[in-house]
Design a protein that fits this description.
With 281 residues, the protein is α/β, with parallel strands linked by helices. The chain contains 11 helices and 9 strands. α1 packs across α2 and α3 packs parallel to α5. The mean pLDDT is 91. Bound molecules: ligand C2E and magnesium ion (3 copies). Keywords: Membrane, Transmembrane, Transmembrane helix. This is EAL domain-containing protein.
Length: 281
């Protein structure tokens, strides 16, 4: 009997592994054609200046719709990074975001900054800066309207990425440190790199309501960001209580409390409603 069960367990394990491998292979092969098949789109997640209540910009978030359903960036971005696809896909996101900066301008948001997530592999690519320059030039974008979000894992490769980061600064593109506080060595990261924006990971906000120590930490991180002259963004504002906690702190917020990330089309009607609500208040 025990032998039977052991065999079954092995079978389960094997099926599970097979499923995972199949899924991964499906994603990997489809990813090659995702751009040509026009399956990718960029959604925008509004950033709100919590002190003034004004819309201050948006984060570009990649979306992938396939004939087997939507696949989340949490699932496909790591695969794109491992296979090197991220170089083409990432470039596509930057170009699309630059085009949309012009779309936002046409719709009355004349200086609407967009933040784009950048993988370490992208940032370290020898052609990254030249291609970025080309896109900015071709799309005729003011580089100061573009911010690139990098994460702390980039620090592990800091020596390799250093030159590109310096060139980014010279180009006038903003640099944002994403998911601050959950990586390896947050403080060494901001010691090495001059940043324009600090994004505090959602986990701090979630715990701050119930845990005084986390609340103190959150306050301290906000102060650090401000002392470094960085725009401080708190990620994942979901509830009115969380918002309340941040209102007097001079920070920016991003989260489902306001809206989920929106397509260009959805953005327009959300924006209209957002400002109507502001007028009523
Ligand atoms: P991220 O850069 O930290 O982006 C924030 C993520 O949190 C987004 O998930 C966003 O939808 C989600 N979020 C925002 N507000 C809330 C909230 O109030 N509650 C909750 N529960 N979630 C919230 P998303 O779009 O699934 O993206 C996941 C991650 O995938 C991103 O994390 C980023 O690391 C990566 N990613 C997305 N687009 C790109 C891209 O174009 N290039 C690269 N390299 N990475 C990307
Ligand atoms: Mg981000
Ligand atoms: Mg983040
Ligand atoms: Mg995150």
């Amino acid at each position: 009997l025990a032998k039977e069960r052991g065999k079954n367990n092995y079978q389960f394990y094997n099926d599970d592994l097979n499923q995972k491998l199949k899924r991964r292979l499906t994603i990997e092969t489809r990813l090659y054609k995702a751009i040509d098949n026009r399956e990718l789109s960029v959604h925008y997640h509004p950033q709100i200046n919590l002190e003034t209540g004004q819309l201050a910009g948006a984060e570009a978030l990649l979306r992938w719709k396939t004939d087997i359903g939507p696949i989340s960036p949490g699932e496909f971005i790591p695969i794109a990074e491992e296979t090197g696809h991220i170089i083409n896909i990432g470039e596509w996101v930057i170009r699309q975001s630059c085009r949309d900066i012009k779309q936002f301008r046409k719709r009355g948001l004349s200086r609407f900054p967009i933040s784009v997530n950048i993988s370490t592999k992208q940032l370290m690519h020898p052609h990254f800066i030249i291609r970025l320059k080309n896109i900015i030039h071709e799309e005729e974008i003011d580089p100061s309207l573009l911010t690139l979000e990098i994460t702390e894992s980039t620090l592990l490769f800091y020596e390799d990425a250093k030159e590109n980061i310096i060139e980014l600064r010279e180009l006038g593109v903003g640099i944002s440190l994403d998911d601050f506080g959950v990586g390896y060595s947050s403080l060494s990261m901001i010691k090495n790199i001059e940043i324009d924006e600090l994004k505090i990971d959602q986990s701090f906000l979630i715990d701050a309501l119930e845990n005084k120590r986390v609340y103190s930490l959150l306050e301290t991180i906000i102060e650090i960001g401000k002392k470094l002259d960085a725009k401080v963004v708190v990620e994942g504002v979901e509830t009115a209580e969380q918002l309340e906690l941040l209102l007097d702190k001079g920070v920016y917020g991003q989260g489902y409390f306001y809206t989920k990330p929106l397509s260009m089309h959805e953005f327009e009607s959300w924006y209209d409603r957002f400002y109507k609500r502001e007028e009523r208040v």
